[in-house]
């Protein structure tokens, strides 16, 4: 599809999704429920979240009012930065998908994989390393299938041959994505509708 296809879709996510909103190489013309530091529990619990422009809102209220044709979800990086059990993350993700499906019965839901990171990220965020993220993404793919959603594996375009975020797409922190990364990301989404 071409970029115009995304004009009436919504994105739900964290700061990685905010990048999709801010960069011209992303999809700034789409609708965004993107909040720095948020995870699935904030959506499930009806938390008030702060957008990049400083406005606050409750994500499910905004999405329910909007009833988008399609919804792209990317959540997890913030919640998973500590190593250890991630079963509660998956439980919240399932609950969130159930809530969204109930509130948006005519919306096509795309679950995007948690994005790859650079190897050095593990030093400051012990939970963010490729083997663990691959395990979690496998679980998310299974949940998406179980809930009738489409799973999109962003590693196909953002990861290098070692399974790390391609250096040319990585911001200095090793997990946020540069403008160039969003252009291949958008191209991938356009080819997987």
Which secondary structure elements does this structure contain, and how are they paired or packed?
Layout: E1 10-13, H1 15-22, E2 31-34, H2 40-44, E3 49-50, E4 56-57, H3 59-66, E5 70-74, H4 87-103, E6 108-112, H5 121-124, H6 130-146, E7 150-152, H7 155-158, H8 179-191
Parallel strand pairs: 1-2, 1-5, 5-6, 6-7
Antiparallel strand pairs: 3-4
Helix pairs in contact: 4-6
Series of secondary-structure elements, N-terminal to C-terminal: EHEHEEHEHEHHEHH
Helical/strand content category: alpha/beta
Cα distance spanning the termini: 8 Å
Overall average residue pLDDT: 97
Helical amount among residues, as a percent range?
25-40%
The tally of beta strands, per DSSP, is 7
Strand order of the largest sheet: 2-1-5-6-7
Shape: globular
Multimer state: single chain
Tally of individual helices: 8
Beta-strand portion reads 5-15%
**Low-confidence region ranges:** none
- Backbone CA Rg: 15 Å
Explained architecture:
The chain is of the alpha/beta class and 193 residues long. The protein has eight helices and seven strands. It has helices at residues 15-22, 40-44, 59-66, 87-103, 121-124, 130-146, 155-158, 179-191; strands at residues 10-13, 31-34, 49-50, 56-57, 70-74, 108-112, 150-152. The protein has a five-stranded parallel sheet, sandwiched between helices. The protein has a two-stranded antiparallel ribbon with strand order 3-4. The mean pLDDT is 97.
């Amino acid at each position: 599809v071409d970029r115009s296809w995304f004009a009436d879709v919504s994105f739900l996510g964290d700061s990685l999704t905010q990048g999709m909103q801010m960069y011209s190489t992303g999809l700034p013309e789409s609708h965004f429920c993107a909040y720095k530091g948020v995870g699935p529990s904030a959506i499930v619990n009806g938390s008030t979240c702060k957008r990049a422009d400083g406005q606050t809102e409750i994500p499910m209220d905004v999405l329910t009012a909007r009833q988008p044709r399609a919804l792209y979800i990317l959540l997890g990086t913030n919640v998973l930065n500590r190593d250890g059990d991630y079963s509660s993350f998956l439980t919240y993700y399932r609950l969130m998908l159930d809530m969204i499906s109930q509130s948006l019965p005519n919306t096509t839901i795309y679950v995007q994989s948690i994005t790859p990171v650079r190897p050095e990220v593990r030093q400051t965020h012990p939970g963010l390393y490729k083997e663990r993220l691959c395990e979690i993404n496998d679980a998310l793919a299974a949940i998406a299938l179980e809930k009738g959603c489409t799973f999109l594996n962003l590693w196909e375009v953002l990861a290098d041959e070692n399974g790390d975020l391609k250096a040319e797409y990585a911001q200095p922190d090793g997990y946020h994505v540069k403008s160039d990364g969003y252009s291949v990301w958008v191209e991938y989404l356009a080819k997987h509708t």
